[in-house]
């Protein structure tokens, strides 16, 4: 799960320099992805909403089966299985807990709308799925013997952050930092997002193959997103208009299945 600032206290709706306000009608892909992820989570056994999965040990067994069916299992991914080959795509819509889901969807809501407006709907959808697929694939390749199922949209959302950094470097991000007693401070995206990436890099060096957060998928996604925006939109694409405000705050860590 994307960490460190995953509770938004505001929304990014004003496209820098354009004066237009974004919303569901303007960014249907972003809101559609959020809706699909939420729907998949609600109908699955992890949400605890559906009584069909039972309770106790029966529910835990159903969750285990769910993750292994739709998540990426690195040890099985490169065994020429058509089903396994599709899991880097299906895993993007599966989440390991309510905190995992809500944190990821909040980041997608805050940073996805403006990125979609700049890229266009179809391009943004292909960018999101493609970068997310490659981020999970890279993690699986680096942990080829791992049996732990990998689920979550954070590789794709990290790509959105990378593209956002290139396209809107001057966007103002208001963050509530726990080590500063949650004092709200405003920084441009070119300060906040590289700092976030540096934290992921440090955490990736300490992470193992067991349950937890797949930091490597974050880093790969972030790099892919930034590189794509740079190659696709060129040096003149970065926002040169008035600073855009983006506000978000910290959250607790989510544990369980490996969660990007």
Poorly predicted ranges: 2-21, 247-257
- The SS-based structural class is mainly alpha
Could you spell the SSE succession in H and E letters?
HHHHHHHEEHHE
What is the subunit arrangement here? single chain
**Radius of gyration in whole Å, from Cα?**
18 Å
The outline comes out as globular
The largest β sheet comes out as: 3 strands, mixed
Number of helices: 9
- Helix coverage percent: 40-55%
Widest β-sheet, arrangement of strands: 2-1-3
Provide key terms for this protein:
single chain; 260 residues; three-stranded mixed sheet; disordered N terminus; mainly alpha
What does this structure look like?
The chain is mainly alpha-helical and 260 residues long. It has nine helices and three strands. It has helices at residues 28-43, 57-70, 74-77, 82-90, 98-119, 121-142, 154-167, 189-206, 215-233; strands at residues 172-177, 183-188, 245-248. Helix 5 (98-119) crosses helix 6. The longest helix is centred in the middle third of the chain and has 22 residues, at 98-119. 43% of the residues are buried. Residues 2-21 and 247-257 have low confidence and may be disordered.
